[in-house]
Amino acid sequence: MKQGDFWSGLALAVLGGGIVFAASGWDYLTPEGPGAGFFPLWYGIAMLIVALLLAAQSLRGGTAHPSQAFSAGQRRALAVIVALAITVALLKPIGFTVAFGLLTLFLVRYLYQRTWGVAAGSAVALSAGFYLVFVFALGVELPAGPLGF
Amino acid sequence: MDVISGLWQGFAVALAPVNLMWCFVGVFLGTVVGILPGLGPAATIAMLLPLTYRMDPSGAIIMLAGIYYGAKYGGSTTAILLNVPGESASVVTCLDGYQMARKGRAGAALGIAAIASFVAGTAGVLGLMLIAPPIAKFALSFSSPEYFALMALGLALVSLLAGHSYLKALLAMLVGLWIASMGTDLFSSTSRFTFGQMQLLDGIEFVVVAIGIFAIGEVLATVESPGDAQTLPVPKGLRNLLPTVQDLKDCRFAFANGSIVGFLIGVLPGAGSTIASFISYGIEKAVSKHPEKFGTGVVEGVAAPEGANNAETGGALVPLLTLGIPGSGTTAILLAALVLWGFKPGPLLIADNPSLFWGLVASMYVGNVMLLVLNLPLVPLFAQILRLPPFVLMPGILGVCLVGVLSAGGGLFDAGLLVLFGVLGYAMRKLDYPTAPLVLGVVLGDSMERALRQSLMMSQGELSILVSRPISAVMLCLAAVILFLPVIKRFNRWRTQAIDTSGDA
Question: Domain map of chain B by residue range?
């Protein structure tokens, strides 16, 4: 059994079912023509069928593998996702430039295992570079923090 | 407007100093992202798209197209020097290119890759220039049913050809259709799939989906395996980069093969440059007098796939600029760009905006010359990009992604969605779901639904309108055959197995 195919197929089957359920609450046909539920109903049904086929196909052949814990590489990717999500959450209170500097600091120090000096230098250089190119030169409006940048 | 006068007008646009600058910026950036493993043209164009909102559309499309075909030149450098494809279409170039470099012929391999890219890239533009206008003229007779059928055929082909699993490609495309239908239905003002979020009433910005799926997804996949690249040395001096006369003689057929195969595959939605380069390599090997030497460092093994890879660009632009139907993730982003700049991609695009179309065509001739110059004498300089430390590059890419979404006017909600789509893009790569069908579903979903509903309004709800018109009937039949082909093949396999079993019994 291919675990990834089985679970992703099942998840998409649930999504397909949800789409069909939501679409059945909207007009299917109106006197003017097809309603808001027409198109979603059909692609929802298609998604449900195809996803179940994928899940069923993954069950055939081979033996079940125990689910693997996150590999080191996947943990690194997960760390980047979490860091990025925190950066987005910090954009409003501290502004883009500082939030992006902190993101760079974290990535260089912990993900790429460079010294604090290299990490801080990279964070300052990249943040300043982004501010100069996008805000100063190109006039892009980015969220500003209490310090005005 | 005939081809000569169109091209004349095009060169007037392309040779304007500002457009020459955008062309150079595009091909330069394209070469850089082509060289960098882990950052493809689709991600780069998606990230830079919001910055083009305030640009003149002719300059903007010239720059974005420059990134598109420039990346294909750059991709070969990484394949030859590092045995890692800079972008997916350069996978085949690794086979003979890296072997040539190991034998001390890196210069000749890089040189022949640049020359093949130039020859076939120029042939692809020639094909685009000659074929696009008549196709657009033919498509003027299309109405909603034909458009719906065309989009259904395009999506079916993309699902069939993208990725390893047909079911997964179909599912990716269906998820794309779902994302496209989020927001307020313009026919009935019904809110669909908004989950009570006001920000979703206008739907999800395409840029957010594209940057998340392509750029963030690629970054996450790249950070999984850290480590600095070890490249083979590039010989210094132009003389050492030029292939010998014998090399050029050996590649005569490869140039033609790459040009024709690349262009034809490019016109086909979904096939893309990776398939074009594989087929071209296969043909080259099949007709070669010494097929056993392929994979050991033969010059034709570099020229054919690199040529096909570059000729594909011209072909891929044909359905985009004549029908408004993209065939790949990158052309889907170019379609979104055209819409954002206020154009209506379709058969009237060339007639209504001749300076845009012909300016683009002429700029591609100019851009190919620029790329030949950039990739022959300056290739040792570009190879230095591979020494750029990833700890600077990755945060930089993440920063450009955030700026891209924020500058598109989406605000913090869209920045949050960017993270979500990044996770989705990463999960798709890990689970082996192709990303192009999803992005195409997002781009085409809205137009496809509109075309279907307009068709059914024309016929007062009769579905037969879709099959009673000859062009839409043919295209829908083809789409149905493509969709059910794998099912029929599987059924046939079961049937033959059953016959064999009963025969044995």
Answer: 2-504
**A47–B175: do the CB atoms touch at under 8 Å?**
yes
pLDDT of residue B224: 83
Is the minimum CB–CB distance between A18 and chain B shorter than 8 Å?
no
Angle at which helices B252-267 and B300-323 cross, to 10°: 30
Token pair in block for residue B439? 């992005």
Q: How far is A88 from chain B (nearest CA, A)?
A: 6
Residues contacting residue A149 through CB under 8 Å, at least 6 positions apart: A95, A96, A97, A98, A131, A135
Q: What is the pLDDT of residues B305-344, one digit of tens each?
A: 999 999 999 999 999 999 888 878 888 889 989 988 888 8
**ipTM attached to this prediction:** 0.92
Residue with tokens 């950066």: A87
Asked whether A85 and A100 are in contact (CB, 8 A), the reply is no
Give the torsion through C-alpha atoms of B10, B16, B18, B21, to 10 deg: 80
- Residues B223, A80: C-beta atoms closer than 8 Å: yes
**What is residue B29's three-state secondary structure?**
helix
A-to-B residue pairs, Cβ atoms closer than 8 angstroms: 175
Q: How far is A77 from chain B (nearest CA, A)?
A: 5
**pLDDT band at residue B505 using 50, 70 and 90 as cut-offs:** low
Residue A99: count of CB within 10 angstroms of its CB: 23
pLDDT of residue B66: 92
The pLDDT assigned to A56 comes to 92
Which parts of B49-90 fold into alpha helices (H)? 57-82
Q: What pairs with residue A34 in β-bridges?
A: A29
Taken in order B406, B409, B415, B418, the sign of the CA dihedral is negative
Question: Model pTM greater than 0.90?
Answer: no
